[in-house]
DNA sequence: CGGAGTGTTGAAAACAGTCAAAGACAGTGG
DNA sequence: CCACTGTCTTTGACTGTTTTCAACACTCCG
């Protein structure tokens, strides 16, 4: 990490996070209640039911939100990438398990002061509303994947989503020939998609066998023809989501 | 409906809708941009991709949001009950199909004036943020149902959700002996749960055969022992969701 | 070298889906 | 009043995808 941990001005997620609309005087207040926390890949950030005295922005890395059933079945219900927001103002106890999927840095704000600040800083509430509405859209797209797609379509959809995100970080659109590092294990992919890890492994192998994706090691994905992959998602060619 | 269509003061959803926090002067502005629209059960409200020049609150009835795939597979991604909000400020085109599941009355606001009003009326934006966060929680619970539950658990979960809502309208908690009218056809239930309508029918019959629910006609559900039903959902006894 | 974590592959079983037929019910019009 | 129609629902038989259970391969690391 090469950004200055104290200065919001050099923060890599400054323009997309919950503080994106803040003026410099507002940032100063935020700086006074913020602190950074880091987690190694695989580490828990918080367990469902724990009291949460902070909310946070993901600065670098990936975190997952999941819900577990008594018998161990687990469903991932959120994937937090850099600039995404963690926690809910006004809520004391965490409703989900939060785990660092990769090495993770959070910019945390003490919850009480943050809530107080939201009341007189419309810029924060406005941005949070926008981000929450976007997350709701993403959750609904995810529901279609979970409820109606086949195992193969689910895998293709996940790879498409990850490729698009990777591209958008570089301010591009996803293209043939792009490649990216899979931030998820087979088990995490399975928890995301509502499958077993064996089924994930089989379907990834099948896509590889058919030349729709190439693998370098277990984790690096190369997509020789992006349209070919999109055709496997079951969505229409434009990606399905209307803007 | 016995409420006065002009006066927010007698509106049945006044205390829970997006306008819940508004002062009387704010309500006056809202009244000047609002209008009511009604739809019969089964009627489309808007199609995915249509331009939407209004946002709205559900006053009475039930509406569904769904996403369709090219080949006809359909997934319901939202169920809007009285007081729920429809539409997104700042968005021109509808991303989902909206259908009146039962007879439906909407309190519509012209989108442009509503957006303008949001900027100088923090009460509306605050309430909308709260409602959106609640919807996101509901969507995530739904994801667990779609991704990890068996057909039987899905049906039991849906009935539990509907029973709880029914009870909360009467300001009670769900209890043994409660009954309610199913607002959904078997097909709509299937679209909600990511099942086929045949599987829904079979599982409802099975729960009836085992005495876990009783049916009066096709649509009225009686729950003799609420805990027995909850035990079939796969969640832990307290309902799973932490508040 | 042994062990833990991660991933792959095979065979059998189970669950939900598909296809098909028929029942229940409400509304319509003769 | 009754036959007819259309919609919604139930049930049966069969099929097929995904899960389950099991074994094994690969890599990293002490």
UniProtKB/TrEMBL annotation, chains A, B:
Query: Sorted alphabetically, which keywords does the UniProt record give?
Result: DNA-binding, Transcription, Transcription regulation
Which SMART domains does this chain map to? cNMP, HTH_CRP
Keyword Glycoprotein, does the record have it? Answer: no
Q: Which residues form the HTH crp-type domain?
A: 149-227
Question: Entry's Pfam families?
Answer: cNMP_binding (PF00027), HTH_Crp_2 (PF13545)
Q: Which CDD domains match?
A: CAP_ED (cd00038), HTH_CRP (cd00092)
Q: Which InterPro entries match?
A: cNMP-bd_dom (IPR000595), cNMP-bd_dom_sf (IPR018490), Env_Response_Regulators (IPR050397), HTH_CRP (IPR012318), RmlC-like_jellyroll (IPR014710), Tscrpt_reg_HTH_Crp-type_CS (IPR018335), WH-like_DNA-bd_sf (IPR036388), WH_DNA-bd_sf (IPR036390)
A single GO molecular function term of this UniProt record = DNA binding
Q: Which residues form a coiled coil?
A: none
According to the UniProt record, one GO cellular component term is: cytosol
**Which residues does the UniProt record annotate as the domain Cyclic nucleotide-binding?**
18-135
NCBIfam families documented for this protein: TransRegFnrLRhodb (NF045989)
What is this protein called in UniProt? Nitrogen fixation regulation protein FixK
